[in-house]
Amino acid sequence: MRRQLLGAMAVSVMALCISFAAEAKNLVYCSEASPEGFSPQLWDTGTTLDVVRPVFNRLVEFKFGTTEIMPSLAESWDISDDGLTYTFHLRKDVKFHSSKTFKPTRDMNADDVVQSFDRMMNKQNPYNGVSGGAYLYFEGMGMPDTMKSVEKVDDHTVKITLNNPESPFLADLAMEWASVTSKEYGDQLLKAKTPEKFDLEPIGTGPYSFVNYEKDATIRYKANAHYFRGKQKIDNLVFSITPDAAVRKAKLEAGECDIIVGPAPADIASLKANPKLNVEEQEGLNIAYLALNVTKKPLDDKRVRQALNMAIDKDAIIKAVYLGGGTPAMNPIPPTIWSYDKDIKPYPYDPDGAKKLLDEAGVKDLSIDLWYMPKYRPYNPDGKRMGELMQADLAKVGVKANLVTYEWGEYRKRMGNGEHSMGQIGWTGDNGDPDNFLYLWGCNGKNEAPTQNNTKWCNADYDAALKGAKETADVAKRTEFYKKAQEIAHEEAPMVPIAHSLVYMAMNKSVQNYIMDPLGFHNFEGVGKAQ
Amino acid sequence: MLRFVLSRILLVIPTFIGILLLTFILVHLIPGDPVEQMLNQHVIDPVRHAMLMHQLGLDRPLAVQFVDYVWHVMQGDLGTSLQTRIPVLEEFLEHFPATLELATCAMIFAVVFGLPAGIIAAQRRGSIFDHTLMGTSLTGYSMPIFWWGLLLIIVFSNTLHWTPVSGRISTDYYFEDGTGFMLIDALNSDDDGAFISAVSHLILPTIVLGTIPLAVIARMTRSSMLEVLGEDYIRTARAKGLADLRVVGVHALRNALIPVVTVIGLQVGTLMGGAILTETIFAWPGIARWVVGAINIRDYPVVQGGVLLIATLIILVNLMVDLLYGVLNPRIRHRR
Lengths: 531, 336
Fold this sequence. Notes:
heterodimer, A: alpha+beta, four-stranded antiparallel β-sheet, 21% strand, B: mainly alpha, 14 helices, 0% strand, globular
């Protein structure tokens, strides 16, 4: 009898738990790795930017699912005629989150915006050196050279002045590094002598407030009741960190996750066949390419570079390496970006034509190193396999390619130094602006290639086109400039564009309104869940 | 006894220095530097790169860095993570309960099933029991952990729905300011559902991590028991008419246990190795995954500090095992 009573009690407690769980709407997202911290300014990996995204807003943001700019913390803005001064008019109803240790006494205003930028720009700012003080995304985007000052005009107006006109600047500001943090919270932590908490226990204005992080396991958020775009349909957002792709798939199938990131290409078919799940796919804003170092012989000869473009069978690579999850590339930018030049005639796969061109260039019995990527990247799932296919293709036109690789950090460093002849590499767009891709192959009008230019190719006309586009805000004019740049890059062939990969997300059918982000981030604002 | 304990403790010191030097050298031998690893896909100019390396103190000669490191370690300072900027010891203590909980359960599982299996197999040598038990243990020993883990998940979680796939507890529960030991926190929460959830989440990782030690313990117990069971004093005990249970349980087992205890001590190291894969598969937030993550991003202080602390634990456990011999067999502590 006693045992039965105990059993009945246990069942009722469990039922209570279940009914409690059903009342609050939870959304569990199974993510791939642990974040470095919770600061959008300090770290630039996709994982960290994903976990800070629910917490923060920026002056302007990307419209969900697009790379178009929409107002956010700034309701409107004016750009001076010379393109050097941006004046932002801030919203007046934006509240910062409260936590156990912080209760905001005022709404967001210009002081918060100025402090957020000043931390990164000004060495004297008390937060500049906190938590290591390396603002990699800010620096990686070239902001220390672009931005001159950020000033408060009044409580709800901020003026940003640039050193040079920079037409992609609004798109730059929509990126996570430009998130607005709370000055009041920062000051409170400074007083308490615990400024490092600023980057570990974030306070923002976003749709969800940070609740807690159990290291390497779960991150919890709860809906921000005062969110200026409206309270979210989900009460509790949980990131369940699950590093292994096969386990993420198992958790989705078992109902332990509602959404999973990056299912393995090989699992897509079985996920699609599951009636309880949805698989969404989108063309990634990325490119995988083979950089041809034009400072190395015989790659200094345009005909040789064009021949290599004709020698590689991209369709075969898409089938074998991307398992069908990609499209062949012909331009240095993906087709989803505005100004993409559809009229360019791609180099055909033509081994005979390639051989002819090589003969014309007087290249015989060429033996050359081919660097392959040692690490999975969304734009190149298997560098080694891709390298082997390229090697076989090149052998058909009489070029002996020797496969070489290094540890990833070392690989990039050496490639930046121009030690390679041919090397696989790629890029994922930061902000959807064509300049964010095309600048990679530019030399800023000098005849010396910067580190990120892996082809070491410098072309005055190409640089002039990029510069022209940067200095005007007129999209039609910019499109013309960028088309010109694509034509030059196609003709000069400093690279073999290989593929733009597809990106997948798998989720339970009960998940509503999840919009895939073209920049590869994961956004939960506006997402709901059917009971 | 004191002399015995002291001599064992003295042996630990050179081991420590060796570990310090070895981890330091190995971790700095890995190509790539932390600044390079911190960057996602962007590049920063060489001047800024050098500045950051200087800020992290990594531009000094290796020997200087090593001396500085040892000096700080001697004062109990293991440094700060280059990535998270949190002290290494604090991070270790945050991850340690998860691993300790899992490793303890795995060890209990291995001993509870391994010892009896070995004893039964020895007693019924050559029987179908013996062959089945030893065949199974060999299979368990040879099973790649990764494959074994995924297999159990597919069978028990996805097909039979008996156990959850991964994690330490359902995402419905969380405990603020807990001890870090999920079973204890769940018990303290007075919520039966939480405790049931924590236990069910432990089952598969315990089996996966405990399988190899179980197989080793079973085989070791069997061979050690076989040896002892052939001894004269066992025959004498049987001749005296003692019950089989008493002969095996008291006379044979106590002597047979000495090599088994050694093996159990050594298995702590194996457990740490196995924990790397087990923690990855089951998304278990423990120290093994923490250190591997740090290697991937060249977080030198975490790798050095983490390995040092893990090694300290293994040394301590083995020291305890050495001392335990003395309890099991008084001849060992009185020797010399």
